[in-house]
Design a protein that fits this description.
Order of helices and strands: HHH
Domain Rabaptin coiled-coil: 42-121
Keywords: Coiled coil
Protein name: Rab GTPase-binding effector protein 1
Pfam families: Rabaptin (PF03528)
Coiled coil: 51-85
Length: 124
C-alpha cells in the first residue's frame, strides 16, 4: 500500500515537473514573439481599449433604446386616451343634436334635410 502511495506521488511530481517545463517553454516562446514583434502586445492593448469603449457605447445605446421604448408605450397610451375621449365627446354631441332635432318643427326638419342634400350634392 505504501509503495502504491509513493508511486502515485512520484507520478504526480513528474506530472507537475512536465507542466512546469511546458509553462517555461510557453513563456520563452512568448518572450521570443514579444522580442520579434513588440507591437503585437501594444495592438492587443489598443484592441482591448477599443473593445471596452465599444461595450460602453453599446450599453448607452441599449439604455437609450429602453427609454425610447418606454416613451413609445406612454405615447401610444396617451393617443388611445385622447382618441377614446374624442369618440365619447362625439357620441355625446350626436345625442344632443338628435335631441335638438326631435323638438324642431316639421318645416325646420325639412329645411335641414334640404341643406344636407345640397351639401352631399356639392361634396360629391
Amino acid at each position: 500500500m505504501r509503495d502504491m502511495k509513493l508511486n502515485f506521488l512520484e507520478n504526480v511530481i513528474i506530472s507537475i515537473f512536465r507542466i512546469i517545463t511546458m509553462l517555461q517553454k510557453r513563456d520563452e516562446y512568448l518572450v521570443t514573439i514579444f522580442r520579434k514583434n513588440p507591437s503585437l502586445f501594444k495592438d492587443k492593448g489598443v484592441m482591448q481599449e477599443d473593445m471596452d469603449r465599444i461595450k460602453l457605447e453599446l450599453q448607452e445605446v441599449c439604455q437609450l433604446l429602453e427609454k425610447e421604448e418606454k416613451k413609445h408605450v406612454q405615447l401610444k397610451r396617451t393617443c388611445k386616451m385622447v382618441n377614446d375621449q374624442f369618440l365619447e365627446t362625439q357620441r355625446l354631441q350626436i345625442m344632443n343634436m338628435r335631441r335638438m332635432q326631435s323638438v324642431l318643427t316639421s318645416e325646420q326638419q325639412r329645411q335641414i334635410a334640404g341643406a344636407k342634400k345640397r351639401t352631399n350634392e356639392n361634396g360629391t
